[in-house]
UniProtKB/TrEMBL annotation:
Pfam families hit by this protein: Sortilin-Vps10
Domain Sortilin N-terminal per the UniProt entry, residue ranges: 5-76
The organism's taxonomic lineage, starting at the top: Eukaryota, Metazoa, Chordata, Craniata, Vertebrata
This protein's UniProt keywords: Repeat
Protein name per UniProt: VPS10 domain-containing receptor SorCS1-like
The keyword Repeat appears for this protein: yes
UniProt keyword Transcription regulation, yes or no: no
GO cellular component: membrane
Record InterPro entries: Sortilin_N (IPR031778), VPS10-sortilin (IPR050310)
Superkingdom in the source lineage: Eukaryota
């Protein structure tokens, strides 16, 4: 399983693949929020987006590595 964020139509969207990148799909948002309120989110107009913030310190564990030559994709496991 791979997860990647991609800028699309001036928005950052999170995609997931289960077959080594052959097919990518948007993530379905949950049906309710933390308070139990309904979330009306229908793909492809609305989807769940994941973001990760890491420390600037490269010696801390859990960082994500990328290269400036990467095509705008960060993949994490």
């Amino acid at each position: 399983m791979l997860i990647a964020n991609k800028r699309q139509d001036n928005q950052v969207k999170t995609f997931m693949t289960y077959n080594k990148g052959r097919d990518w799909r948007l993530l379905q948002a949950p049906a309710t929020d933390l308070d139990g309120n309904d979330i009306h989110c229908i793909l492809p107009f609305c989807s769940l987006n994941l973001q990760l913030q890491t420390s600037e310190n490269p010696y801390l564990s859990g960082t994500i590595s990328t290269k400036s030559s990467a095509p705008g994709i960060i993949v994490a496991t």
